[in-house]
UniProtKB/TrEMBL annotation:
Coiled-coil residue windows: none
Protein name per its UniProtKB record: Phosphate transport system permease protein
Function: Part of the binding-protein-dependent transport system for phosphate; probably responsible for the translocation of the substrate across the membrane.
Main location class: membrane
Assigned keywords, A-Z: Cell membrane, Membrane, Phosphate transport, Transmembrane, Transmembrane helix, Transport
Organism domain of life: Bacteria
Length: 317
């Protein structure tokens, strides 16, 4: 006769206390990490608002070529948005194409090294991109700018006298496009790989080509991720300083759509970096006020991106 005994489970759980303590520690650490980000953002906003508030009504000569803060900030904000949007127009198609190649076309032994190299571009300092754009890319793009002016000069963007140095909005947009390419590509690549395998196989089983499978199964599923990657790239482009300062021959705050001339609008970040080291304290206050404008504009762009992503997810669901 065989007697079996059940293990005694009525005793105290030796791991219950430690598990509860670990959960509480992890919850507190996660809460502190999230709160620290909010505190840092609030601290930056308060600093810019307090230190830059008097910049909204400074002396008129500080707003040259304007006589008040509103048109002065609007001109800088226009230059910031123009360069960033042009960079996105250049970078986004390349980022989506590279991400699709790495996720659905390239063999694994090739896609992994290429993805690694693209991710390494994000580690290159912006000043290196600026020096490269100034010394190497500017002379190389000058024939392209001349061709665009000769053949498409009737378009307002390509009209006017081409800059002899090549330091134009067009060059700044190309440099920024290369800088935002890694982050946009990485996010698009990951969301493309998250497409359910059954959806892809079902499309191929119904006779779809690989492009039709990508068009009807991958891209709709990844729409919100593409928008998120694009907006993150836009945030990087809006705040870029040194690269734009080096490659753009800025002429101060102004509104002009010509991207090939020497009469270029300055961006907020490059204008702050160029003028903040001066001894004029009043000018520094004005620059802080423009920094507050850039902070709020970037926050609004990211908030709008989150709303678009959430709306697209609800619609797709």
């Amino acid at each position: 006769m065989t007697v079996t005994t059940e293990p005694d489970t009525s005793g105290p759980d030796l791991f219950a206390g430690r598990s509860g303590i670990g959960d509480r520690i992890f919850h507190g650490a996660a809460l502190a990490a999230g709160a620290s980000i909010m505190v840092a953002l609030a601290a930056v906003f308060v600093f810019l608002a307090v230190r830059g508030s008097s910049g909204f009504s400074a002396a008129k000569d500080l707003y040259q070529p304007y006589d008040s803060f509103l048109p002065y900030a609007a001109g800088l904000l226009f230059g910031t948005a123009l360069v960033a949007v042009l960079a996105l127009v250049i970078a986004t198609p390349f980022a989506i194409g590279v991400a699709l190649f790495l996720s659905h076309y390239a063999p694994r032994r090739l896609s992994a090294p290429i993805a690694y190299l693209i991710d390494l571009l994000a580690a290159v300092p912006s000043v290196v991109f600026g020096l490269w754009g100034l010394r190497a890319l500017a002379p190389a793009t000058l024939p392209i700018e001349t061709w665009l002016n000769d053949h498409l000069g009737w378009v307002p963007f390509f009209s006017g006298d081409v800059s002899a140095t090549g330091r134009t909005v067009f060059l700044a947009a190309i440099v920024l496009a290369i800088m935002v390419l890694p982050i946009t590509t990485a996010i698009c690549r990951e969301v493309f790989r998250q497409t359910p395998r059954l959806h892809e196989e079902a499309a191929l089983a119904l006779g779809a080509t690989r492009w039709e499978m990508i068009r009807y199964a991958v891209l709709p599923h990844s729409r919100s991720g593409i928008i998120a990657g694009t907006m993150l790239g836009l945030g990087r482009a809006l705040g870029e300083t040194m690269a734009v300062l080096l490659v753009l021959n800025a002429q101060g705050p102004k509104v002009t759509f010509k991207v090939l001339t020497s009469d270029n609008p300055a961006t907020i970040a490059s204008n702050i970096a160029q003028n903040f080291q001066g001894e004029n304290v009043d000018l520094q206050v004005v620059l802080l006020a423009t920094g507050l404008v850039l902070f709020l504009f970037t926050f609004l762009v990211n908030f709008s991106a989150r709303w678009i992503v959430a709306r697209a997810e609800r619609k797709f669901a």
